[in-house]
Design brief:
The longest helix is centred in the first third of the chain and has 29 residues. With 491 residues, the protein is an alpha+beta fold. The protein has 14 helices and 15 strands.
């Protein structure tokens, strides 16, 4: 049922209010993930210019390393069904993969995962569209940041939201899209007074549900019911109640690293070098002071017994450096990020030692693959509804193996699986590190061509009487003269 204009405007106002409330907190996470978080509160507003500049360059972004380490470990290489049809053209994985490729989601998927790890969740929209190159109808897939979209779910177990509200840029202005639970998309704009107005008629996706899929960093049953924190409130500008994602749990450690770096820079600037002093004498003018500073030997003619020379010891910086390194190790422990990626200590590690160092991150990545894989399969079902292809329940995602294991060891293990356990080799091709879906399909094609050549060679050998002379195989025919013809050949 099409909503009335008043209902659309009321829903849009409510959803925009939700979006603005969420964005207030998500903006803080965005600043931390990009290394633009607020300077330490201990710096006074009237601090000298050099102090404020030291504070600016003291923001070292450890959180970005954690996020990129996870993003680089996730890459969808293929889709497959457990029981594919005999005819490859009827395989739903082929049809879904074609839509994936047409939307260039090989590259766009990383942006989706990055938003998930920054904010704890992100969205994917699948709507009917037209290929601008060929003019053919095809689904359009878009990854959307939660800073631009909010979704309302009526029940905790709902797969599809009841309403979504998205702020989109069109040229130099913004438009707004409200999608209801029937899959109707209402496009809105604003007048000079900031009020919503409809742009055209609502677009019907024809799905009967809201085609928006939510991707989450990790499932948390209490995420929507967080208790009130029993601690001092954060300083103005850094408050956030968001606990999901990779940024929020590390904000405190990021602040500690920034403070330690600021103290280090202050010590370097003011007391890291030796300073000399003179007691009992003061330069008479600026020129005399400059000559004293440039001289290697100082001499005093008047009252030398009343003058005392000395120097201050330089500040030891190793404590600041060790403190920052320990903070980075805490970040590595809490985020399950390999410590060598945060502090750069990687010296002559074997493949086995490197795999052991990255085992925690691999376990964490496997958990994300399971959760996000279900979201990808949900979006595949939506694509199947749009293109008229039934996606089976056993449809699954094939992730690229990015673990730090020696290539020879992986190939040796795959060879043993095929030889000792009699697993068909073709089932193992997509597990070869670096092999994409295109590589697997090409290998299958070359293998099929090799089998055809082998069949032809066997046939010629039997024609010559070297192997089983005069014995036709199933499907072959034999003429009265004894000539054996391949299957499907007419005499």
């Amino acid at each position: 049922m099409v909503l009335s204009a008043d209902d659309v405007f009321a829903a849009a106002n409510d959803m925009e209010s939700m979006l603005n409330q969420e964005r207030t907190q998500l903006d803080v996470l965005r600043l931390y993930s990009t290394g633009k978080q607020r300077m330490p509160i201990v710096i006074p507003q009237d601090a000298p210019v050099e102090v404020r500049e030291m504070a600016r360059i003291s923001r070292i972004n450890l959180i970005k390393i954690v996020i990129e380490s996870l993003v680089e470990s996730l890459f969808v290489d293929n889709f497959r069904s457990i029981d594919p049809p005999a005819n490859p053209e009827d395989d739903p994985a082929q049809a879904i993969w074609a839509v994936w490729q047409a939307n260039r989601f090989d590259a766009k998927q990383s942006a989706l995962y990055r938003a998930v790890f920054e904010y704890g969740y992100a969205y994917e929209r699948i709507v009917p569209g037209v290929d601008q190159r060929t003019g053919e109808k095809r689904p359009v897939m878009r990854a959307v940041s939660p800073r631009r979209m909010t979704a309302l779910y009526v029940d905790d177990n709902d797969d599809w939201p009841a309403y979504t509200f998205e702020k989109r840029r069109r040229g130099r202005h913004f438009i707004y899209e409200l999608t209801d639970e029937q899959g109707l998309i209402y496009t809105l704009g604003r007048d000079d007074k900031g009020r919503f107005g409809l742009i055209g008629d609502p677009a019907d996706t024809g799905l009967g549900y809201n085609p928006t899929v939510r991707f989450m960093d990790a499932e948390d049953l209490d995420l929507e019911d967080e208790p009130v924190a029993l601690s001092l409130p954060a300083p103005a500008g850094n408050e956030t109640c968001v606990v999901a994602g990779q940024v929020a749990p590390l904000m405190t450690l990021q602040d500690q690293a920034d403070m330690t770096t600021f103290a280090l820079k202050g010590a370097e600037w003011y007391s890291a070098f030796r300073q000399r002093y003179i007691k009992g004498w003061t330069p008479g003018n600026r020129g005399e002071k400059m000559r004293m500073g440039a001289s290697q030997v100082w001499s005093f003619e008047d009252h030398p017994d009343d003058i005392e020379l000395g120097e201050f010891n330089q500040t030891e910086l190793s404590g600041f450096l060790n403190s920052r390194a320990e903070t980075a190790r805490f970040v590595a422990t809490l985020s399950q990020t390999p410590v060598h990626e945060l502090i750069g200590e990687l010296v002559n590690l074997s493949a086995e030692a490197l795999a052991a160092a990255e085992a925690g991150r691999d376990r964490k990545t496997d958990e994300r693959k399971t959760g996000m894989g279900e979201s990808h399969e949900q979006s595949a079902q939506c694509i199947g509804d749009l293109i008229g292809v039934e996606v089976p329940d056993d449809f699954e995602v094939v992730w690229r193996d990015t673990s730090a294991r020696a290539f020879s060891a992986v190939v040796d293990a795959l060879g043993k699986l095929a030889q000792m356990l009699q697993i068909p080799p073709q089932m193992l091709w997509d597990r070869i590190p670096g092999f994409t879906r295109q590589d697997v399909e090409r290998a299958k094609l070359l293998a099929a061509q090799g089998d055809s050549l082998g069949q032809l060679t066997s046939l010629l050998d039997r024609q010559a009487g070297t192997v089983n002379p005069g014995t036709p195989q199933p499907g072959e025919t034999q003429t009265q003269s004894g000539l054996i013809l391949p299957p499907g050949t007419r005499t």
